[in-house]
Amino acid sequence: MEPVTLRTERLVLSIPTAADVDAITDAAQDPQVPRWTTLPSPYDRRYAEEYVHGAERTWADESELLWAIRADGVWVGAMGLHRVVTGGSAAIGYWMDAAARGNGYVTEAAAAVIDFAFARPLSLARIEWRAIVGNDASARTAQKLGFRYEGTLRQGLADSRGRYDGWIASLLPTDDRAPQPWPVPVTTP
User: Fold this and answer.
1) Quick check: 12 pLDDT over 60?
2) 129 phi/psi in degrees, rounded to 5
3) pLDDT at 186 over 80
4) Do residues 127 and 81 touch, judged by C-beta distance below 8 A?
5) Is 84 exposed, middle or buried (0-12, 13-18, 19+ CB in 10 A)?
6) CB atoms within 10 A of CB 171
7) In angstroms, rounded to a whole number, what is the distance separating the alpha carbons of residues 155 and 142?
8) How far apart are alpha carbons 21 and 175 in whole angstroms?
9) Spatial distance between the Cα atoms of 171 and 77, rounded to a whole number of angstroms
10) Is the dihedral of CA 20, 70, 98, 157 positive or negative?
């Protein structure tokens, strides 16, 4: 599949490019990024370059659809649909530069990605969201988007640093996208 650019009222989501490498590298230095994501730590420029170069390949084979989130033409975050199975399911993931947090960009960008995912040609039947237990910011976003909490995966998330308990939620194309209550405590900022 050719990369698809999505536009919202304030954002442009498009394939990451070499022009994003410095911004990605700088944003990944925030200790909150490796705390809540699977990005390598320490994170150096080589990882950002590999991410950017790999984006074209993963769009082509439709295994991962990766977007750079841009506000006013500036990279502010990343979003992706991972483990895509056309007509089946995918997992959504996202992270933001610390300076861009708190503006509602992730929710706005994710809503556009969800609309795209449920439409043709992907026609996904299910989108999953997963996060390490305690990642309240990500959970608040998922709640706002209408994701239904499904449970806690004991030691269900892993990266090179270890295994973690994880929350899982999902969204179906027929679900009401109104904010959803969850049975786990998610703190407000």
Assistant:
1) yes
2) -125, 135
3) no
4) yes
5) buried
6) 23
7) 21
8) 36
9) 22
10) negative
Contact (Cβ atoms closer than 8 angstroms) between residue 4 and residue 58: no
Q: What is the pTM of this model?
A: 0.94
- Side-chain half-sphere exposure of 166, counting CA atoms within 13 A: 21
Provide the β-strand partners of residue 132. Answer: 166
- Report residue 60's pLDDT band, with 50, 70 and 90 as the boundaries: very high
92: β partners: 81, 129
Q: Burial of 156 by CB count in 10 Å (0-12 exposed, 13-18 middle, 19+ buried)?
A: middle
